[in-house]
Amino acid sequence: MVQFYNLHPFGSQQIVPMKQEPELFCCGRDCVFVACAGACKIDVFVASRDVFEPFCSINTVGKVRQMRYSDVGDYLVAVEEKNQVTSLRAYVNWRCKSTGNSRTSVRLVGLMIENPLNGGPRDQMDIIEMPLSDSPLCVSCCPVRGDLLVGCKNKLVLFYLRHLSLNNELSALDFERSLNLHVVNVTPIQIAFCAGYVSLMMEFEVLVLKLLQSPKGAAKTTAPDANGLGQPHEEGLINQAPPSSPCPLDLDDFVICQRPMELFGEESRSSGISFTLESIGLAKEDVYIQIQYILYRSFSLDLSQVFSVEDTKLHSLQLLPMYRTGTSTSLEGSASSQNRELLSLFCFFSMPHVGYLYTIGNSADLISTYQYPERSQEAVVTPQFLHVITSNSLQCYTVRCSAAAARDEDPYIDTTLKTCPPVTLDICALRMQLFIGLKVLGRFQNHVILLTKAIDEDITERETPKRTFSRRAGSVKHKLPPETEPGWNLYVVNTVPTIQLYKEMVEYSRKYETIRTQSSIHLLSEAHLLVRAALMDPDLMESPEKEELLAAFRDSCGYLGDCYSRFNTKFSHLALPYYKMSQLSMSDILSRGNSIIGGGGEDYGKGFVFYLKHSLSEDLDEELSEELATKVLQILSTAEPVQLPHALCSASMKNVSPRIAMGYLQKLDTTHPSVVVTLAKASMALKMQDLSAYRIEMGRHTEMMMVYGFVIEPRLLMHRRNEEIISTELAVHLKETQTRLLVASMVALYENSKIVLQEADLFLKVFCEQYEDEDRTPQLLVDFWEALFVACPQEAVLQDLLFKLISHYICRITGRQPPDTKPLKTPEELINSCSHYGLIYPWITYMVSKELPNNDSSEELSKLQSLLCGPSLDIASVRPFLEPLQENNIAALSVHILCATRLGEYEKSINKLLDQCPEAVISYAIHELKDASQGLWWTKLLPELCNRIQHGGNENQILISALRETLSVVAMELDLKDFLNVLPEDGSATFFLPYLLHHNRKKSVT
């Protein structure tokens, strides 16, 4: 479907001053090449400030049948005919002709003149002749690499463009004949070549394929097809003559009408068109070339619309590249081919009444079909428009190339942050400009070139000739009366600037606003794509023009956001990404006028409510005024009242009147009560400093239900702004009055992935106003760690929490951090509720009981000892944390001995106990010296006690008591002989001999 709008894409027009009748032309980078009828020359006209002036003339060998210009290399290639012999020539360095220098060199392709002009400046034009075994019918230049493809009967010939350096100052262009593609019984009418993609068009068929290059050793491998799947290829690079083609039947008296067909990917092989590749180049002998089929389409003769076969043939084959945004496009020599990065590729071809536009990237897809109201003669597609000529009108249609390319550049473009009008958007016809006798069409930059040839009959009689049909193609010929002379003109129609046409489209769309149709959205989408295509032009540099385009792009996003906000369509959700791309603030959007936000609920479209909900759910660095915040409450109370408590939790609603908000919440509480509504009411009560109302609301639900409410809406406790987490008034009040609820809520937020551990740590530190002191850990944060530890987090977080807690406990024990509040959990509660906290060993309890600990650190000491006794700690990794603990008191000594014992250092632990706390040595030995370490009773402890008693000291009675216990254990565990062997030889234990003998007899009896 094509939608028609009476817009003005065409501006001024001028006539190119020519002395002879133009026969055909082609457009260059900044010029037009015109071949005149009956003359062997090409006139060149260059655009200077939108005025075309003669630049130079190029003499040709024969009459020009076809010519193409290549931006890469700045050369012109022409198919010329002289004495019924067709040849192919390339004109290089033709711009030097403008100086009046007629110096010209003629050479064969591949042959260079050594040291031309003795190293002087290059001021001559080169004509490169390209001999072919078959007559060239059509040519195409690759806009990306500058390579040349020549179409002959049953064959395509590929020439690579080469940039040769002759010496330090001189360089030249040449071509290398590289590849022949032989195809049986196919005569291309037109060909197109771009970045390895080849498209050829016959009378009723179009085939698109891609030449794939791979190392020669990988010749037998499979190549990806159009859908990325591996398929075997039969075509290969060979160095032999092609097989002879069978002699075709004489079909001059027949018209073959084949069945319409559309094939994609490897299915295109079944079209019956197959290729044989013949390598004829030398530079890339190590490269193996394969063919990947992309698209095949054939058409049948529509007898209801034609009066000759010529009027049904396909025309205007074109491959249109689009480049990745931001790639440089220096146009000096080959720089453009090196700097441009191909993003998307499109293929266009046309029947007389229908045009087809395909995207042919990884796969071929039909994106647009153009229905012409009249029979077309030629068409040219650009990233912004499709221009079509009929016999008497120039038509302009919009295209969807920028929409497809935007999705190729960003496959995730359709999100809540960004979007783009769809590729399937209806076609839009902008203008039909009347001309008389249109024949040829061309386009470059912002110029449309038209060749008109009119006779008197065209002007006076506009009737359609009678329809006749012949089986011979082109049998109908309109002969000019001998007394009439043809009238001709070469027109240059200047298209208006993108910004000017964009503004006209926006203005035109406003006539549809009141009736609320899709036409307003459609035309604004067209304007958006127009600007997007201009911004994707790689020739667009940083300039005021680009800034103006970017501003128009943002404006178009704002207008589209307005449309989707206002209309209740299935695409209303697009208001959100379009408003995001417009970079308008929420205040700007809320204040855009009554056409978007009216006075009643019926004025708020689904799209606007969708945008409002999502914007308020984000932590934007924007605060609405009290008036706009109240407006938000009015909108949501009408459209979606259940969103009111969530909206009030947004940082953007900070300035809302708490009394007005409480009124809306109380009304909602009667219809949709929930714990979130209750907590929101409590928050508003705090803002009003109504503590009585606050306590009433907080008493309506259990602690578990309130924790659930905070999980549903975390912004009741905190806001994120610029990577910073800010606490709310409700959170501050909970810290003072209900710390246990606050900690439980933070743990629940972590467990439900609403906050990560690092964010929670930072929030609680800032919350307790201790962020500046990096070494100080507030007790609230420790309570959170302990509560999270009890909840058994994942292993990765578990180790992190262990190190955090141990570091804190040690700081408290050493007195560096006195507690700011009382801990929520005692050591006994942690031991009973968490498997990571182990039972404290008896000998540790005995040691600590001998020394009265500091009351401020006794609980932290017990928690640390419990963790070290638990199963989760890797003691070796904990030891570096214990360096601040000096072994100058029993508490610190117990921690060090506990770590040494867990690491199997029993002898070292016994020595420390004997030195500093001998009272606990027996308790330690009874608990630890078991199994494999039991021998330490008589190999370590007994000799050490005897030795220390012998030397005497203040602790002699304690050591003697320990010795008795030790001897009791040793006597019970060893035989009499072994027992006597371990006794000291100096007789110091003889006093205990009767006692030991008694125990030995008792053991013998048992």
TrEMBL record:
Q: Which Pfam families match?
A: HPS3_C, HPS3_N
Native organism taxonomy: Eukaryota, Metazoa, Chordata, Craniata, Vertebrata
Q: What is this protein called?
A: Hermansky-Pudlak syndrome 3 protein isoform X1
Which GO cellular component terms are attached? Answer: BLOC-2 complex; cytoplasm
What organism is the protein native to?
Answer: Microcaecilia unicolor
Could you tell me which residue ranges the BLOC-2 complex member HPS3 N-terminal domain spans? Answer: 3-481
Q: Where is the BLOC-2 complex member HPS3 C-terminal domain?
A: 500-1003
